[in-house]
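User: I'm preparing a small set of examples for a lab meeting where we compare how different chains pack in three dimensions. I only have the primary sequence for this one, and I'd like the structure in token form so I can line it up with the others. Please keep the answer compact; I'll paste it straight into my notes.
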Amino acid sequence: MRPLMDYNLVMKTPALIFMAVIALVATACGQATSPSPTATPRPANTATPEPTPAPTATAVPTPLPTATPQPAPTSTAPPAPTPIKVQTRATKESGKAYDFEIETFDGEMLRLSDLEGKVVVLNFWASWCPPCRWEMPFFEEMHQEYKDQGVVFLGVAISDTLENARGFAESTGVTYPIGLDTTNEISRNYNVVSLPTTFFIGREGNVERRLTSAANEGVLKVFLRGQLRSRN
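Assistant: Understood. Below is the structure token output for the 232-residue chain.
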């Protein structure tokens, strides 16, 4: 019986070898055809962006409340007249009054020396001078009150035209004598440097007072009463 078993083993050995070879070949072919594993791509290192700061709003300064200017209270009283300057040369201002002759708007020639023995209110003015225009009605009023007491009002317009000076005197209703100093010689001799300017001349022909601002009724009365009392 032993030889039979060896015979079967011998007969099966080539087949086993063949099958082993086939298995090896198949294994080798399988390894050759199977795809090689591919590496999974790793994401590139990217820098993490820094967060962009949120824009900050620039604070606009709130303007401080401003007070609404209130109009200054207006006075109902008439404004005080402002003297107007006139350029003249400096001359004597007191003592004996300078004598002069002037033609009045009525066409008469009047000389100051002919009025000696009376109190003379000599007023220098101009039609373009607001303070002069303001005070002239007071001169006319005092002329009417004192003309019978030995007081003479005399107006001398300077740096003016005959038409303007005469027109304003007539519109104001002035009745005392007024003339125009056509050469400004009279105003220079009396050193008139502002308008209006008024001289109070005593009975002896001397300059007693000089007023370089506008005069109202009260001011004129103060000077005239002083001159009239000096007669007694």
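A couple of notes for your slides: Helices lie at 2-33, 130-146, 162-172, 185-189, 217-229. Residues 87-229 form a domain with the Glutaredoxin fold (CATH 3.40.30.10).

User: Perfect, thanks.
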